[in-house]
Amino acid sequence: MYAIIENGGKQYKVSEGDVVKVEKLNAEVGAEVSFDVVMVSDGAEVKLGKDVENAKVTATVAAQDNYKKIIVFKYKAKKNERKKQGHRQPFTAVKIEKIVL
């Protein structure tokens, strides 16, 4: 069984026991969170829309961390204008506990 959940404008395919990195959540490590369900499949049939209105995916927050640093370098040719920046996007790692229809 798997579900498609929505978080931070993105959709993730999850199964029970998966650890997924999602957009940063305001939750402590060990706290329980739930997600909006878009679709659920149990292998035989797929449920969407009104069928998954009451469906729930619960997860436990495993970690709060930042991704690896990326370098952003902007420059304008022949103008001696350069700007170098680094960015580390924060994320929350969650462990999927239960998918309930």
Would you kindly provide a written description of the structure presented here, covering whatever features stand out?
The structure is a single chain. The chain is mainly β. It is built from no helices and nine strands. It has one domain (2-100). It has strands at residues 2-7, 10-15, 19-23, 32-41, 46-48, 56-66, 70-76, 81-87, 90-100. A hairpin with a 4-residue loop joins strand 4 (32-41) and strand 5.
Task: Identify the notable features of this structure and list them briefly.
single chain; 101 residues; mainly beta; seven-stranded antiparallel β-sheet; 9 strands; 65% strand; elongated
Question: Uncertain segments of ≥5 residues (pLDDT<50)?
Answer: none
Beta-strand content = over 45%
Q: Mind summarizing the main beta sheet?
A: 7 strands, antiparallel
Supply the number of helical segments. 0
Structural class: mainly beta
Number of domains: 1
Mean pLDDT: 95
Principal-axis shape equals elongated
Overall helicity: under 10%
- Report the end-to-end length measured between terminal Cα atoms: 11 Å
User: SSE order in H/E notation?
Assistant: EEEEEEEEE
Beta strand count: 9
Round the Cα radius of gyration to an integer and report it. Answer: 19 Å
Quick structural gist:
With 101 residues, the chain is an all-beta fold. The chain has strands spanning 2-7, 10-15, 19-23, 32-41, 46-48, 56-66, 70-76, 81-87, 90-100.
Itemize the secondary structure elements and their pairings.
Elements: E1 2-7, E2 10-15, E3 19-23, E4 32-41, E5 46-48, E6 56-66, E7 70-76, E8 81-87, E9 90-100
